[in-house]
Specification:
mainly alpha; two-stranded parallel ribbon; globular; NAD(P)-bd_dom_sf; SDR_fam; Sc_DH/Rdtase_CS
Length: about 190
């Protein structure tokens, strides 16, 4: 809410609407998109074949559900120049030789494939909606503390080993993608 107020007072165009949503709970995701539809007076609609899925993993499910709902929301409101941005990871392009992250890498590879498949389907549907996958390296988020929950020193060392990206860097990447002209696919 603070960031939304800062954006508004700085005179940025558009509207940032903060919403608390646990991406591991489909009902909360659907509730969030229901609120978006209500705020923007959407109707009914359906998307490309991409949106028919069954995936047990949170990273894959949340991305799939959010993408499906975002696309349907855009179609309901006749938006043909929207942008779906998936925050991925470099682990979606290579597997780090650490056994604790191999399954994480598998889910991020899925995000890479889902985004590319979506991009192709959106082109095939002749829509101007773009799909982008942002794949950062190590971002200082606290993820290492969850990954190494029995070893907080190892977790802290993860972030001290290199100059990590910050949340602001990710926000700047999203802003860059959104500010790219319509003919540019990032």
């Amino acid at each position: 809410q603070k960031l939304a107020a800062e954006c508004q007072s700085a005179g940025y165009p558009g509207l940032l609407i903060p919403w608390k949503c646990d991406l591991s709970i489909e009902e909360e995701i659907l509730s969030m998109f229901s609120a978006i539809r209500t705020l923007h007076q959407g109707g009914g609609g359906a998307g490309p074949d991409f949106f028919s899925f069954s995936a047990p993993q949170v990273n894959v499910m949340a991305v799939s559900i959010c993408t499906r709902e975002a696309y349907q929301s855009m179609k309901e409101r006749n938006i043909d120049d929207g942008h779906i941005i998936n925050i991925n990871s470099m682990n979606g392009h290579s597997v780090v030789p650490q056994s604790v992250v191999h399954f994480y890498s598998a889910t991020k590879y899925a995000v890479t494939a889902l985004t590319e498949g979506l991009r192709q389907e959106l082109r095939e549907a002749r829509t101007h909606i773009r799909a982008t996958c942002i794949s950062p390296g190590l971002v200082e988020t606290g993820f290492a503390f969850k990954l190494h929950d029995n070893d907080p020193e190892r977790a802290a060392a993860t972030y001290e080993s290199i100059r990590c990206l910050k949340a602001e860097d990710m926000a700047n990447a999203v802003i860059y993608v959104l500010s790219a002209p319509p003919h540019v696919q990032v």
